[in-house]
Amino acid sequence: MKMNKGCEYCLIVEGAYLTESEAEHALRDPFIEDWVEQTGRFRLHNMGEIEIAPGVALGSLGIVMLDERLFEIASVDPEHPLTEHKAKGIAEALRRQDMFDEIAVEPREESEEDQL
């Protein structure tokens, strides 16, 4: 019997960013700008309200640098890991924003570092 129910997904993205902070701004800024255009204001607590794909709030995503220009985007909420469907929705939203050169959806590898 195949036990793939708990498989968590992530996005592996490539872009011309030198730090996690730069990549995080590239991830968040277009969605925040859209939110401001729609609502006229933005506050930090709105990160949990800005939905970038069905069932995925901008504030629930984190980004980690894997290598030069290579980053992993994944859920930081252990109660709501990314499913393959949600990850594909995020990938499509990122492609529309055109902030990363390459975007791939992959199963997330569990490691002790992920649990810290």
- The largest sheet has its strands arranged as 4-5-1-6
The helix-and-strand class reads alpha+beta
Mean pLDDT: 88
Strand elements, count: 6
Give me the number of helical elements.
2
pLDDT < 50 runs, ≥5 residues:
112-116
The CATH architecture assignment turns out to be 2-Layer Sandwich
Compute the gyration radius: what is it? 14 Å
Give the DSSP E fraction (strand runs of 2 or more residues): 25-35%
* CATH topology call: Alpha-Beta Plaits
- The total tally of domains equals 1
Helix content: 25-40%
Major β-sheet profile: 4 strands, antiparallel
Q: What are the secondary-structure elements, in order, as H or E? A: EHEEEEHE
Broad shape = globular
- CATH C-level category: Alpha Beta
Compute the separation of the termini in Å. 31 Å
Please give a structural write-up.
- 29% of the residues lie in helices and 26% in strands.
- The chain has 116 residues and is α+β, with helices and mostly antiparallel strands.
- It has a single domain (9-107), classed as Alpha-Beta Plaits.
- The strands form two sheets. Strands 4-5-1-6 form a four-stranded antiparallel beta sheet, covered by helices on one side. Strands 2-3 form a two-stranded antiparallel ribbon.
List keywords for this structure.
26% strand, 116 residues, four-stranded antiparallel β-sheet, alpha+beta, Alpha-Beta Plaits, two-stranded antiparallel ribbon
